[in-house]
C-alpha cells in the first residue's frame, strides 16, 4: 500500500507534524494532509483549539491535536527515549491526561507596554508577553486573579521592570509570590492590602531582591499531601495538578505495595512519603532545607513512621550499604535525572523501584545504568500534567 507523502503521520518531539516524506509542519495534527502551498487540510485528529491565544501563547503547543493523538504523542516520547538508549520498549500503559483548567501552580510575567500593563505567559520561543484574557489550563481560582493582578501591577511596576508572579493553590486559597517590584510607601502598602483582602488571598509575599517577605498571611499556609497538611514554604515544588499527583501516587503505591521499608529519594514536601507512611516505614531524602523541615514537622505532629534526611543526592547518593534496609525505593529527581544515585541503586539489593520522571531522556539514561545492574523495566505510564504542551512525564515499575 502506498502512503500519501503529504499525510501527517506523527508528531515530532517539539510538536511539529511530520509528513510521510519527512517534512516538519508546525500546527499540523496526525491525519492532516499538506497542500503543495503548505495549506493544512484538517484530518480526523485535528481539533479546534479551545483557547483564543493559541498558537501565540507558549504554554500549549498542541491544542490543535485531539486527546487520542496527544496520548499517542506522550507514549511515542517515552518509547523514543528508550530506543535511543537501545533499551527494549516495555508495556506503555494508557497515559494520564490532566483535565483542562486544573493547573494549580504557574509562573506569570508582568510588564508595562505603552500605556498598559500586560500579565501573562511568554510567547513560544520568545521574550514577548501574551496578555492572557482566557486560559484553558490554569485552575479557575488562579485565573480569577489575573485581572486583579493586572490592576495591582499597574500600581507597583516601574517603567522598565519585568515582574514574576508565582501562583500556587494552597489549602487556604491562592499563595502569591511577586518578584521584580519595589513596594515601599503607604500607597504600595494599601494597594497590596486591598488586592489581598478583596481577593481573599491566602498569602501574599514580595521578593524585592532580599528574599521572600510576607505582606499578608492571615493564617499559616499548608498543602495537604496524603491526607496530612504540610506547611507550604515559598516557591516549593508541587506536582502541577492535583489529578496528576493522584495518578502518580496511585501508581507508586501499586508498585511499592507490600514493601515494609521504603526510601523516597528527592522527596520534596512528601507527596509520596506521606502517601506511603501509614503502611510502610519511610526514609524521605531531600536537598532543599525548607521542604524537608516542613515535612518533618508535619510527620512528627501525626507521629508517622517517617524519617527525614536533609541530603544532597547528587553529591552524596545513598550508598549500597545505606540502601540495605529498603525493599522498595521511589525516586523522583529533577530534569537532569539521578545518574550517581542510579549507579549505587544498580549495585543494591532493592527489589522494586518506582521511578517518577519529568524527562524521558534522563530517565532512559538512568534505566540503562539500572539495567546494567540486572534491573528490568516492567511498565511505564506516561503522565500529561502539562496538558497540550510537549512536556512529557512518566512513572515506571522497575524490578529485579
Ligand atoms: C521533581 S521534584 C519531586 C518532589 C517530590 N517527590 C514531589 O513529588 O512533590 C524534585 C525534588 O528534588 C529536589 N532536589 C533537587 N536536587 C537535589 C539533590 N541534589 N539532592 C536531593 N534532592 C534534590 C528538589 O528540591 C525537589 O524537591
TrEMBL record:
Keyword Mitochondrion part of the UniProt annotation: no
UniProt binding sites for S-adenosyl-L-methionine: 239, 266, 286, 332
InterPro entries xref list: MeTrfase_TrmA_AS, SAM-dependent_MTases_sf, U5_MeTrfase_fam
Key words of the record: Methyltransferase, S-adenosyl-L-methionine, Transferase
One GO MF term: rRNA (uridine-C5-)-methyltransferase activity
Catalytic residues of the enzyme: 358, 358 (nucleophile)
Pfam hit, one: tRNA_U5-meth_tr
PROSITE patterns: SAM_MT_RNA_M5U, TRMA_1
One GO term of the biological process aspect: rRNA base methylation
PANTHER family per UniProt: 23S RRNA (URACIL(1939)-C(5))-METHYLTRANSFERASE RLMD, RNA M5U METHYLTRANSFERASE
Family to which this protein belongs: Belongs to the class I-like SAM-binding methyltransferase superfamily. RNA M5U methyltransferase family.
Name of the protein described by the UniProt record: Class I SAM-dependent RNA methyltransferase
Species per Swiss-Prot/TrEMBL record: Sphingomonas lacunae
Classification of source organism: Bacteria, Pseudomonadati, Pseudomonadota, Alphaproteobacteria, Sphingomonadales
Amino acid at each position: 500500500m502506498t502512503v500519501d507523502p503529504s499525510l501527517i503521520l506523527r508528531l515530532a518531539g517539539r510538536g511539529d507534524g511530520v509528513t510521510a516524506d519527512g517534512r516538519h509542519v508546525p500546527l499540523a495534527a496526525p491525519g492532516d494532509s499538506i497542500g503543495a502551498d503548505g495549506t493544512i487540510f484538517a484530518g480526523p485528529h485535528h481539533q479546534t483549539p479551545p483557547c483564543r491565544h493559541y498558537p501565540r501563547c507558549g504554554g500549549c503547543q498542541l491544542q490543535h491535536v485531539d486527546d487520542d493523538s496527544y496520548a499517542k504523542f506522550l507514549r511515542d516520547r517515552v518509547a523514543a527515549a528508550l530506543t535511543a538508549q537501545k533499551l527494549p520498549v516495555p508495556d506503555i500503559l494508557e497515559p494520564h491526561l490532566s483535565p483542562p483548567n486544573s493547573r494549580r501552580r504557574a509562573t506569570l510575567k508582568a510588564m508595562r507596554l505603552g500605556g498598559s500593563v500586560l500579565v501573562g505567559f511568554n510567547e513560544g520561543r520568545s521574550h514577548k508577553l501574551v496578555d492572557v484574557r482566557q486560559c484553558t489550563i490554569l485552575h479557575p481560582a488562579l485565573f480569577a486573579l489575573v485581572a486583579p493582578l493586572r490592576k495591582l501591577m499597574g500600581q507597583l511596576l516601574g517603567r522598565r521592570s519585568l515582574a514574576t508572579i508565582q501562583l500556587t493553590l494552597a489549602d487556604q486559597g491562592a499563595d502569591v509570590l511577586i518578584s521584580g517590584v519595589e513596594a515601599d510607601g503607604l500607597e504600595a502598602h494599601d494597594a497590596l492590602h486591598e488586592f489581598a483582602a478583596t481577593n481573599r488571598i491566602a498569602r501574599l509575599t514580595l521578593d524585592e531582591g532580599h528574599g521572600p517577605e510576607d505582606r499578608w498571611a492571615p493564617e499559616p499556609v499548608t498543602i495537604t499531601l496524603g491526607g496530612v497538611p504540610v506547611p507550604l514554604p515559598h516557591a516549593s515544588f508541587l506536582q502541577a495538578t492535583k489529578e496528576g499527583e493522584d495518578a502518580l501516587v496511585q501508581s507508586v503505591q501499586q508498585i511499592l505495595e507490600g514493601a515494609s521499608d521504603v526510601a523516597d529519594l528527592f522527596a520534596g514536601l512528601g507527596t509520596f512519603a506521606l502517601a506511603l507512611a501509614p503502611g510502610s516505614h519511610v526514609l524521605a531524602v531531600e536537598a532543599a532545607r525548607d521542604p524537608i523541615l516542613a515535612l518533618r514537622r508535619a510527620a512528627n505532629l501525626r507521629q508517622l513512621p517517617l524519617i527525614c534526611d536533609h541530603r544532597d543526592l547528587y553529591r552524596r547518593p545513598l550508598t549500597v550499604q545505606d540502601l540495605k534496609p529498603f525493599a522498595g525505593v521511589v525516586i523522583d529527581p529533577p530534569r537532569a535525572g539521578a545518574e550517581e544515585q542510579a549507579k549505587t541503586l544498580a549495585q543494591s539489593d532493592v527489589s522494586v523501584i518506582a521511578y517518577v520522571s519529568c524527562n524521558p531522556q534522563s530517565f532512559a539514561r538512568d534505566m540503562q545504568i539500572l539495567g546494567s545492574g540486572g534491573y528490568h523495566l516492567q511498565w511505564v505510564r506516561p503522565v500529561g500534567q502539562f496538558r497540550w504542551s510537549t512536556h512529557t512525564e512518566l512513572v515506571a515499575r522497575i524490578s529485579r
